[in-house]
């Protein structure tokens, strides 16, 4: 164990989405929007899980991560780590930062589920350079929604949807996406969420010819380009999400292959849930 | 294949011969070169192939003391020491062997450590047949290079003896100079640099992106070939010398090299980040589920300990029929790991023949003994998947050897119309690595080749002031010992620079 990390539960929403502030001064200082970290809850036998940085404060030396408990590792992480405990392994910031530049029209940011977390720094960064930001956040249901206040604070307009209508508008994120593209000048769309959501966002954006950036959340091990486990097909070329990404031109990503590859260890996962020991969260805990 | 001899059998044979030699010596008779060369090359005791193919324990068990003594007597102390010239780090080979002949094992290992701090590792993973042993006079006299003095096995023996007898001594660094050096990467190049620079009294911090130190020696080379405990021990020795290690620190991202040099107070830096970007073949089906780079396959098993199913959280991909593509050490590691992880059938597909394989002779022999099924002169054209995107087979094309190419090896030429399918459910691609682009991307002014390898001068100095580089990031994928050789050269130049500052 090499560093002391503070954890905070102050924004815990429910039993499945967790927000932790983690003491990581070096990462807080150098991270940029779009970058991620990898953590392990055991430096010997633990699996490596990528999580995008949801927020950071270089002065106070912390970063924030948001994760959903989807496997044994995230469950253990949420249950057994108390404020003040050490996270044995945490490395970052990884990946290429988001390319942020001044745009004429709207930057439309679309976040679904746990993908809302990585979208937050991108919304902030666009807002900070003076872009007009319209943000859509959506989740399956009310309990899985978070960052509404934070997103509202950093956006010119915020649209909230839930699939089941349990909170705000009952819709999927592609519906407001299309409406906005129909009536406004949109310069760029940034979409982060489950692969299937990003795939549909790309399809929805296509008729309008708006560029769309997607942030991919594949399975990873090292996160530094060494293993190639995270590879995806982008424009017919094999790219590594960890070093070439995580963000790619949505029109070029082969989402079907990506979704298939993410099922590589699905059978193990069921087995693990059964035995309640193996995590296999990598690539699912966050974007 | 010859019959497997147990350690006891080998020891018994050695003891008998050694007693004769001792008697001769006691009688005052000097051993002639002919006496020496008539001693049979001592075979390395190893686990029985059918047993070891199903466990992760080390395959080669190491010489017994008697075997080591007897093998050392095969060295005629020829005088010219051609062996030494074949060693990338210039180990004083005849000198250390002489100590073994005298029964002074500690003297032997200390002699090696004058130029090589990692003998337990090098004794296991160096391609001795292409280095020291290739030039051995005994091998030449016998017109059989494979019968050269087993220098690597002797090196391993004394290093293991020192460790198991708690005799490890750590070099005392020179008085503190107050100068600070950053070493990026904790693989063989980085550890060598750290040792040599710390010895000169400079403070050294080694930065490692992974959670564990050792680089390729922990994530790549499997336990059954290089026990991780040994690597940890070598790192411990460096810690005892005062070298500091920072794991989970990715230079370029956590902090850039410029930040370390300008704000971190480091006077110089060494980049030894290795060749970490696996090559793929860019053929159809390469992104199917079940197609792995060797790096991923081996990292899961070694670093993440997935072979230990009871404890590890990192899953393995269960496969019954595994094909490994390539003919190097990494391919052998992949194939032999697949056997140990429970594959029923393991193929090794290589587009040339056994004679051209770049792997160490011993690794190839071990793979054969363990039952790896070699498909020489074949190369994949596409991977075949089912409707769920899972690998079910590979289409191969048969080759023949044509004219020699630039590497001097005969070029494999495809025979049209020979496509055929091999049913497999996992593929491991071991065709080498490209260089990781991270340092070049995040370091202004760092000159690299078009393949991304860092360009250095004869002293391993890069295009940036105060920055040196070595190992696979310079060489492309090579060996542990070549990386160490580059590390030594860099450290000498860095020490000279720091002394003049």
Task: Sum this structure up briefly.
With 287 residues, chain A is of the alpha/beta class.
List its salient traits:
heterodimer, A: 287 residues, alpha/beta, Rossmann fold, 7-stranded mixed β-sheet, 5-stranded antiparallel β-sheet, 9 helices, 14 strands, 27% helix, globular, disordered N terminus, disordered C terminus, B: 501 residues, Fumarate Reductase Iron-sulfur Protein, Chain B, domain 2, FAD/NAD(P)-binding domain, 3 domains, 5-stranded parallel β-sheet, 20 helices, 16 strands
Percent helix of chain A, as a range, is 25-40%
| Strand tally of chain A | 14
How would you describe the shape of chain A?
Answer: globular
| Annotation, overall tally of beta strands of chain B | 16
Element-level helix/strand string of chain A? EHEEEHEEHEHEEHEHEEEHEHH
CATH class of the largest domain in chain B: Alpha Beta
Individual helix count of chain A: 9
Beta-strand percent range of chain A: 25-35%
Largest interface: A-B, 50 and 44 residues
Read across the widest sheet of chain A, the strand sequence of neighbours is 9-8-7-6-10-11-14
What amount of the residues of chain B lies in strands? 15-25%
Cα gyration radius of chain A (Å): 18 Å
The biggest sheet of chain A amounts to: 7 strands, mixed
**CATH homologous superfamily (4th level) name of the largest domain in chain B:** FAD/NAD(P)-binding domain
Characterize the quaternary organization of these chains: heterodimer
Rounded to an integer in angstroms, the radius of gyration calculated over CA atoms of chain B is 24 Å
The averaged pLDDT of chain B comes out at 94
Query: Which stretches of chain A are poorly predicted, pLDDT < 50 over at least 5 residues?
Result: 1-6, 8-13, 274-287
Low-confidence stretches of chain B: none
- Amino-to-carboxy terminus distance of chain B: 60 Å
Overall residue-averaged pLDDT value of chain A = 86
């Amino acid at each position: 164990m090499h560093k002391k990390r503070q954890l905070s539960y102050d924004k815990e929403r429910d039993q499945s989405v967790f927000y932790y502030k983690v003491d990581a001064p070096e990462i807080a200082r150098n991270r940029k929007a779009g970058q991620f970290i990898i953590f392990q809850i055991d430096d010997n036998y633990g699996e490596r899980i990528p999580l995008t940085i949801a927020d950071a404060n270089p002065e106070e030396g912390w970063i924030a991560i948001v994760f959903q408990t989807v496997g044994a590792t995230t469950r253990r992480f949420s249950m057994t780590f108390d404020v003040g405990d050490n996270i044995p392994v945490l490395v970052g910031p990884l990946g290429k930062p988001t390319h942020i530049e001044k745009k004429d029209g709207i930057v439309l940011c679309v976040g679904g589920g746990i993908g809302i977390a990585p979208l937050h720094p991108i919304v902030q960064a666009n807002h900070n350079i003076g872009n007009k930001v319209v943000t859509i956040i959506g989740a399956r249901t009310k309990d899985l929604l978070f960052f509404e206040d934070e997103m509202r604070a950093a956006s010119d307009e915020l649209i909230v949807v839930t699939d089941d209508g349990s909170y705000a508008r009952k819709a999927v994120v592609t519906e407001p996406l299309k409406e906005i593209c129909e009536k406004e000048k949109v310069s760029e769309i940034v979409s982060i969420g489950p692969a299937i959501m990003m795939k549909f966002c790309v399809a929805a954006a296509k008729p309008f010819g708006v560029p769309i950036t997607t942030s991919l959340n594949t399975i990873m091990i090292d996160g530094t380009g060494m293993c190639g486990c995270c590879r995806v097909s982008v424009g017919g070329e094999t790219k590594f999400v960890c070093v070439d990404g995580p963000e790619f031109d949505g029109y070029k990503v082969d989402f079907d292959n990506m979704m298939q590859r993410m099922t590589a260890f699905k059978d193990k996962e069921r087995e693990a849930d059964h035995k309640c020991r193996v995590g296999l969260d990598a690539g699912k805990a966050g974007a | 294949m010859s019959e497997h001899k147990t350690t006891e059998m080998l020891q018994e044979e050695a003891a008998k011969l050694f007693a004769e030699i001792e008697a001769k010596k006691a009688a005052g008779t000097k051993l002639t070169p002919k006496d020496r060369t008539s001693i049979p090359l001592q075979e390395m005791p190893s686990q029985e192939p059918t047993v070891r193919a199903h466990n992760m324990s080390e395959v080669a068990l190491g010489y017994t003391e008697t075997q080591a003594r007897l093998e050392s007597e095969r060295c005629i102390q020829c005088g010219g020491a051609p062996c030494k010239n074949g060693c990338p780090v210039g180990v004083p080979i005849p000198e250390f062997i002489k100590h073994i002949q005298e029964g002074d094992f500690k003297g032997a290992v200390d002699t090696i450590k004058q130029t090589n701090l990692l003998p337990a590792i090098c004794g296991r993973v160096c391609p001795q047949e292409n280095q020291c042993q290739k030039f051995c006079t005994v091998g030449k006299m016998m017109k059989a290079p494979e019968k050269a003095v087993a220098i690597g096995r002797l090196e391993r023996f004394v290093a293991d003896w020192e460790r198991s007898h708690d005799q490890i001594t750590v070099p005392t660094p020179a008085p503190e100079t107050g100068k600070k050096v950053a070493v990026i990467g904790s693989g063989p190049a980085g550890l060598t640099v750290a040792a040599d620079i710390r010895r000169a009294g400079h403070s050294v911090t080694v930065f490692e992106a992974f959670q564990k130190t050792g680089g390729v020696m922990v994530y790549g080379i499997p336990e059954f070939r290089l026990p991780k405990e040994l690597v940890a021990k070598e790192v411990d020795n460096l810690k005892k010398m005062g070298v500091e290690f920072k794991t989970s620190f990715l230079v370029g991202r956590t902090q850039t090299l410029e930040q370390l040099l300008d704000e971190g107070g480091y006077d110089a830096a060494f980049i030894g980040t290795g060749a970490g970007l696996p090559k793929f073949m860019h053929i159809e089906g390469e992104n199917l589920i079940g197609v792995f780079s060797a790096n991923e396959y081996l990292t899961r098993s070694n670093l993440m300990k997935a072979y230990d199913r009871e404890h590890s959280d990192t899953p393995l991909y269960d496969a019954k029929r595994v094909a490994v593509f390539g003919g190097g050490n990494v391919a052998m590691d992949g194939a032999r790991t697949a056997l140990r992880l429970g594959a029923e059938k393991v193929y090794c597909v290589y587009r040339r023949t056994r004679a051209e394989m770049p792997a160490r002779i011993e690794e190839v022999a071990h793979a054969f003994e363990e039952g790896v099924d070699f498909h020489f002169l074949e190369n994949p054209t596409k991977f075949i998947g089912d409707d769920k995107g899972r690998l079910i087979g590979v289409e191969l094309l048969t080759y023949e050897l044509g004219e020699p190419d630039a590497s001097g090896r005969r070029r494999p030429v495809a025979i049209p119309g020979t496509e055929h399918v091999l049913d497999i459910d996992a593929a491991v691609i071991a065709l080498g690595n490209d260089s990781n682009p991270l340092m070049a991307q995040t370091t202004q002014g760092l000159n690299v080749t078009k393949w991304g390898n860092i360009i250095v001068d004869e002293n391993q100095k890069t295009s940036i002031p105060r920055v040196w580089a070595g190992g696979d990031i310079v060489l492309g994928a090579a060996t542990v010992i070549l990386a160490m050789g580059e590390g030594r050269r860099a450290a000498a130049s860095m020490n000279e620079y720091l002394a003049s500052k």
